[in-house]
Amino acid sequence: MHSPSAGEIAGLPAPVREQVPLRFVLMRGGTSRAVFLRESDLPRDREARDAIILAVFGSPDPRQVDGLGGADLLTSKCAIIGPPSRPDAHLDYTFAQVSVSEPVVDYDMNCGNISAAVGVYGLQEGLVRAAEPTTRVRVHNTNTGRILIAEVPVHEGVPRVEGDLAIDGVPGTGAPILMDYSETAGGRTGALLPTGQAADDLVVEGLGRVRASIVDLANLCVFFPAEQARMTGTEGPGTITPEQLATIAAIKQATAARLGISNNGQTPIPVAVAAPAGFTSFSGRPVAAGDISLLARVVGGKPPVMHKAYPGTAGACTAVAAAIPGTVVAEITGTPTPAGRVTIGHPSGIADVWGQVRQEDGAWAVERAAYARRARRARASSSRSRTRPGPTSRSRRSSGAALSGVTAGGECGTLAAHFKGRERWPDTGSPSSRSASAITTCGFRYSPGSSPATCTSTGRCSRGRSRLRRGPCCGRPSPSTSRRRRSPRRSCG
Length: 493
What we know:
The chain is built from seven helices and 25 strands. The chain is an alpha+beta fold.
């Protein structure tokens, strides 16, 4: 990719020459946290997009000190939101797992915890019309090509935050968001049971034959007895050994080989399961064997580490696996309860999930795959990413393109130069391609004939902050163009 010289971007204001503004919302969903970005703000080119995302997160760096990442598998996540690409959805959602210490962004999986925040984000950003007391948001997850449903509690037109739902791994309580994954079977392989069997014998290097169940619901998962990885099922992130991690990686690789898919991504997700036993949670709270249906431990990320809690997608998949006779999970949980409830013992405590199936034309069909989560908006602002990142900020798949190679060319929607001749998404979330003599952003007006990314009028940013310096426009849509004007030459950057 062409990387323009300093002279080619000399027309941009000084702050933009070295750093690119990119609007974001930081949201917690369940036990995870993600940076939410708009699809329209990112370049279409995969390598260029990955380079920007890595720079936003500060990867690769074990501390992610130069970005928004939290230096942990559960906080180095990105959600990309765009208009729906299919008529039965309210919006498109692409999940990206950003490696902390490697220059890699993976898209071969969904995140069930972050999925719970997508519906809240859509309502708060005006992309979905609110309906009380509960708004059903149909989300098209592009990673799996499936529809998931988030039932978001709403009061006075906005998502509720306060409530009584407690989730192990998250402090306090909050409003419950019910997640329905019943329409997500076969997202990776095309079938709920990719091999057609409830259980298979995998040939694993160094172990021989391992009995496992491969289930494709929400995310492609492989369930196997913890003892096969020389585990008890009560291990925590700090006690699992390198040898156990290597064994789990070998089982994951054998599963991928059995299905004829790549082993370079995050799926199939390996899940070690065991019979109920007492253990101490990650926070130090004791969990009794009688309080759970089974023990389960998940390993993921690059490099692989134990999940500190339990992925929502793996939870939905576990519930469905427990409902299918003959799976490794069902052999532990026994006869399903009438409601299909399964209580999973994971490193942070317990998690309740629900799964029900029925026989249809000789195959299993999913009737219910659900769990509840909480979500909250933590911050909305704009990130400043370097236009010429160092060599450690490049994606493994990237040819080494500098960020300036995409932003100065107008592909990234964060620069006002990209706005010429068209409007940003209004508050309703509907894309528009109408021409405009002046584009309204942040309560200011950007004139296409003026210097790129510079405010030429006055006012107050839609975030309610007064601006003191002239500078680049942050590009946030304004709810109204009739804002009270203040002193001249104020910036919305």
